[in-house]
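Q: Please design a sequence for this.
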């Protein structure tokens, strides 16, 4: 599946769009981490929870549950949430 990577994580991937595999978001993150070591820890914590400053969209729908199932044709966007005052 096609994964859009936020600019803050491009230092891991070298590009803002990658191909990844997996039948769930957790499996996709494991696939990404196998090729881009350390990226998974920047996206999810030790309790398998999405970090609070990130959002994930699957086919345009916001998803917080990392066990969310995926299909090979899905488009995934990892988005860094903006904050500040």
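A: Design:
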């Amino acid at each position: 599946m096609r994964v859009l990577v936020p600019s803050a994580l491009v230092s891991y991937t070298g590009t803002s769009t990658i191909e990844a595999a997996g039948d769930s978001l957790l499996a996709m993150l494991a696939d990404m981490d196998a090729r881009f070591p350390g990226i998974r820890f920047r996206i999810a914590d030790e309790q398998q929870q999405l970090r609070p400053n990130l959002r994930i969209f699957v086919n345009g729908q916001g998803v917080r549950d990392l066990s969310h199932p995926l299909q090979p044709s899905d488009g995934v966007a990892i988005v860094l949430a903006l904050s500040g005052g």
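Q: Thanks. Anything notable?
A: Residues 2-80 form a domain with the Ubiquitin-like (UB roll) fold (CATH 3.10.20.30). The mean pLDDT is 94.
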